[in-house]
Amino acid sequence: MKQNKSPASTAALGGILCAQALALSWLEGLIPVMPWMPPGAKPGFSNVVTMFAADSLGAGMAFAVTAVKALFAFAVRGPTAGAMSLAGGALSTAVMLLLLRTGKEKVGIIGISVLCAITHNVAQLCAAAVMTGTPGIFGYAPLLGIFAAVTGTVTGVILKAVLPALEKMKKYFIK
Amino acid sequence: MELKLFRKTDLFILLAVLTVCAALLFLPGLFGEGLTAVVTVDGAEYARVDLDALTEPSEIITPTEPKTVIVFEKGAAYFKSSECENGLCVAAGKLNRKGTACACLPARVVLTIVGGRGDVDAVTY
Fold first, then answer.
1. Does B17 touch chain A (CB under 8 A)?
2. What is the ipTM of this complex?
3. Beta strands at B36-41 and B109-114: parallel, antiparallel or unpaired
4. Crossing angle of helices A79-102/A59-77, nearest 10°?
5. Distance (Å, rounded) from C-alpha B109 to C-alpha B37?
6. Is B44 on the interface with A (CB under 8 A)?
7. DSSP state of B95
8. Separation CA A107–CA A103 (nearest Å)
9. SS3 letters for chain A?
10. A4 to A8, A10, A166: CA distances (angstroms)
11. Which residues of chain B make contact with A107, given a CB cutoff of 8 A?
12. Which of A145, A141, A120 is nearest to B17 (CA)?
């Protein structure tokens, strides 16, 4: 089947995906802070978009979405937020792509999602430790690990649920 | 290859992550909060105890008049008993968070918790 894929339509689709990722990011920011969680721990709903991009559109699009998210965080919340977003996003997207390339027979969406969530947290903990100079920040690791397992599963389930809609959206741009 | 929602490996991943994290959380002192209890007598530091490293409680009796008995256990410190007349120090209960303190004024003994994760008392936004 001949794929009708012009740079313009790819860019348009990319724009929509980035907007979706940012919208999801904003939505989850509305959830009230739970006192027992480390500040900044998030459900990561925008990873639904990144995972879709990674699986269906390739590394370029996945990293583009990640970069736009980080850039947005930098512009709106400052360099610290931007750096944290980039650190977590870059490593987690890389792991995502690796798992999708090599592990589809063994790992499902939930497994990939949980592993990416953990990677995201680990990368951010490292970035935070470097920025604040306190290795004690790793004390959050076990709690974040459990949180990552839960949110990874939730995100994975959401992706499975919206996949048909996302595919339909993609077909609109890339026939 | 089709991307499915849940494969067998996913279950192992989930279980592995949860057990590792749970184990780390309950491993004594490994991811401790760095809670330290400091006892001062007459303003001078008398004892400093790492509360995370304790496996069983320990007690000290302050060399003051009236005497007080302070207990250090994993994650908390408190006045167990005192010869003072009002007993407010004992009534203060267990201290387990950074920045909390209590004192026996007649004995001029102050018990403070330093270190530890800075906790918020409440969140409003």
1. yes
2. 0.72
3. antiparallel
4. 160
5. 13
6. no
7. B
8. 6
9. CCCCCCHHHHHHHHHHHHHHHHHHHHHHHCCCCCCCCCCCCCCCCCHHHHHHHHHHCCHHHHHHHHHHHHHHHHHHHCHHHHHHHHHHHHHHHHHHHHHHHHCCCCCCHHHHHHHHHHHHHHHHHHHHHHHHCCHHHHHHHHHHHHHHHHHHHHHHHHHHHHHHHHHHHHHHHCC
10. 11, 10, 18
11. 7, 9-10, 13
12. A145
Only one residue has tokens 């690791």, namely A141
Residues of B in contact with A142 (CB under 8 A): 20-22, 24-25, 31
- Tokens 């167990």 sit at which residue? B80
CA end-to-end distance (rounded Å), chain A: 9
Q: Where do we find the tokens 């990293």?
A: A63
Distance between CA atoms of residues B125 and B117, nearest Å? 21
pLDDT tens digits along A20-76: 999 998 888 888 877 666 666 788 899 999 999 998 888 899 999 999 999 998 998
Position of tokens 């721990």?
A41
What is the pTM assigned to this prediction? 0.68
